[in-house]
Amino acid sequence: MKLIKYPSKEQWSELLKRPTLNTENLFDTVRTIINKVRFEGDKAVLEYEATFDKAVLSTLPVTSEEIKEAEGKISNELKAAISLAKQNIETFHASQRFVGKKVETMNGVTCWQKAVGIEKVGLYIPGGTAPLFSTVLMLAVPAKIAGCKEIVLCTPPDKNGNIHPAILFAAQLAGVSKIFKAGGVQAIAAMAYGTESIPKVYKIFGPGNQYVTAAKQLVSLRDVAIDMPAGPSEVEVLADASASPVFVAADLLSQAEHGVDSQAMLITTSEKLQAEVVLEVERQLAKLPRKEIAEKSLENSKLILVRDLEEALELTNAYAPEHLIIETENYLEVAERITNAGSVFLGSLTPESAGDYASGTNHTLPTNGYAKAYSGVSLDSFIRKITFQEIISDGIQAIGPAIEEMAANEHLDAHKNAVTVRLDSLK
Amino acid sequence: MKLIKYPSKEQWSELLKRPTLNTENLFDTVRTIINKVRFEGDKAVLEYEATFDKAVLSTLPVTSEEIKEAEGKISNELKAAISLAKQNIETFHASQRFVGKKVETMNGVTCWQKAVGIEKVGLYIPGGTAPLFSTVLMLAVPAKIAGCKEIVLCTPPDKNGNIHPAILFAAQLAGVSKIFKAGGVQAIAAMAYGTESIPKVYKIFGPGNQYVTAAKQLVSLRDVAIDMPAGPSEVEVLADASASPVFVAADLLSQAEHGVDSQAMLITTSEKLQAEVVLEVERQLAKLPRKEIAEKSLENSKLILVRDLEEALELTNAYAPEHLIIETENYLEVAERITNAGSVFLGSLTPESAGDYASGTNHTLPTNGYAKAYSGVSLDSFIRKITFQEIISDGIQAIGPAIEEMAANEHLDAHKNAVTVRLDSLK
């Protein structure tokens, strides 16, 4: 961990730098895999599963028997926890339902928006050491509420061709329509273009390694929408002297254990807290199973002491953290002044873990400073708002001449004429 | 125009095909320009302006004198029309303001969303034969309502280094902060990375040719968000026997005059209408100044006769048109069943031109079937929704054990520990 005291403004951009993620140099490799899946379908996906996931499969779909069996393989405690989390995610995302109102912009001119779920969505859940059933909930629950008709999930199988039962349980609970054993670039390509067994979808969601990220970027250039650009996960804790060093250390470590490129940062007005957090991180780190990852990640971790809350806020908004934990007095007032962040956790009893799993907010969030331009995943991510307008005779008479004038000045006479023929019909 | 009668479902995908827009082969050329602007700043932009726009400039910013002069150069009629349009766009987009509500997902666990404007946005307005002041309004008005603090506009100057006064007037009226004489790839690069005079922005909006599209795609891979992928403009008219062939023809032509790659389609249940529209298009076409463009574009235009309204709806949702005009009896009922479209125009007195200019809806819309996954530009495009959560002791006691269980099963023990230390503190 790096302790920084009272940095000058000139140092900020260096302090707030993230590791750059350049996926463009992977595009050639990734494009080859994408094209093979696009033109050879299931056959190519099965081949890549054998090569990359060492799984020899005869078919890609997960059967209903496998889903049924999964339920018996996980503990009642875990099932109950997943169900509680699902319920809270559902409550919060259902509250985000959009109901458009009709607006008469002028007499006889009525405009409105209507939310419609994206018909087919694809969810990608990475494999690796940990089964990310929480991400299944975060993506499938809002998709279901949005009214998406087909919710496709791809996740890589283990070497024996199996998917972790907790992933299957969460998927079935959240209302996923179809689950496939496919990972990596081949899964993204399959959902982008469709194969014999995997349906083509209109938007792809979910995390992944740099190859998955590159594949999502490439297919999004023309053929399918994606949730948002990806980068390593990160947390900032903004704390004053009232914060508990034990809690702050636990929060920094929970980010650090994600991966060696994770970013954990403390911005504080208290020199005492800064010092105590260092000791407390060391104490807690010793007990962690993923100690090595966390240790490596913490090498890049910065604990920054600033002059006052004002400066802390300015630095925070310049950083635009994915996760922001505010442990200060009057944290609600501080929160009011946050303009750039993905998700904000308020007060001493609100760890990031709560939002990662079970409070109800979404954990798919903008990293890498993307919070300056992107929102996290929410119900909005699974709908489109279609605009409608109805103009009656009073309306076209009111706005028609303005349209004619503007169209003529943009040299678009057919646009003008489409109004003129209507005005003439009313004479 | 191609007249198609009762196509079989097997023919649909061929019928609904759009011209493919492959920008990837432009990436190398475009990347060179982007990098030069990124590293040389204003100097590079000025050089490219001389090369591509034949404009020899000494500086890039439009001065306040130029803006003041512009007002004197356009007619009072046009000023009044632009002001009326601006007012309606403002009324409709202001009605889209999002107010988050606090939701208690469980006792002691409160979650909410808050809308915050994107701090810095960049608007690109293309040059060419027509001054697109309407697009200035469509992008700047919602940016202003959203609370974007810096609204930057780039548009190419003419050979004499001037910008059309209607663009300057609309920009100033709508609240654009800074206007620059810069077009094409160099403008996109300047807004993505910033130069000495052009500020870096977080999201870039606006139409453009294939080079501009490629530039937006490239910078969006990592460095800045963009509004949506672009493609040629298109309209579908869905009409029954009650529709006026004069209106339908005028609407098809207003799309066709945009460019030779524009798509204009009629889907109708009336053979009589199909035949009449052909004659009426010919009659109206003869009088159009942009006749040659429209004629060329109409070569790809399809007038499709289908069996019934049911089939018309299915075909429409499969096509996912950017603009959809519904001229049928009971058009409100028909509208209810539209699931894929950008903007929908209802009834015989609602031409696309109305939404293009002055009704209040936005005219920046998803083309190329992107309406299956994307919305058009709206107030949402200029904000982010930041999520907040506050958990108090009852709350963490209620959801804490579930978080611990889930984190342990995802092998994320530090995540678990961040909850455990808090539960322990409450004992």
Task: Please explain how this structure is put together.
The structure is a homodimer of 427-residue chains. The first copy, chain A, is an alpha/beta fold and 427 residues long. The first copy, chain A, folds into 3 domains: 2-21 and 232-360, Nitrogenase molybdenum iron protein domain (Rossmann fold, 3-Layer(aba) Sandwich), CATH 3.40.50; 26-226, 3-Layer(aba) Sandwich (Rossmann fold), CATH 3.40.50.1980; 392-425, no CATH class. Chain A has helices at 12-15, 27-40, 42-52, 64-73, 76-94, 133-146, 165-174, 184-193, 210-220, 245-256, 271-285, 291-298, 309-319, 331-336, 352-357, 393-409, 413-426, and strands spanning 2-5, 103-106, 109-117, 120-124, 150-155, 178-181, 203-205, 225-226, 234-239, 263-268, 302-305, 323-327, 343-346, 383-391. A 6-stranded parallel beta sheet of chain A has the order 1-11-10-9-12-13, sandwiched between helices. A 5-stranded parallel beta sheet of chain A has the order 6-5-4-7-8, with helices on both faces. A 3-stranded antiparallel beta sheet of chain A has the order 2-3-14. In chain A, α10 (245-256) links the parallel β9 (234-239) and β10. In chain A, α2 (27-40) crosses α3, α6 runs parallel beside α7 (165-174) and α10 (245-256) packs across α12 (291-298). The longest helix of chain A is centred in the first third of the chain and has 19 residues, at 76-94. The radius of gyration of chain A is 25 Å and the shape is globular. The termini of chain A are far apart. The mean pLDDT of chain A is 95. Chains A and B meet through α5, β2, β3, α10 and α14 of A and α5, β2, β3, α10 and β13 of B. β14 of chain A pairs parallel with β13 of chain B.
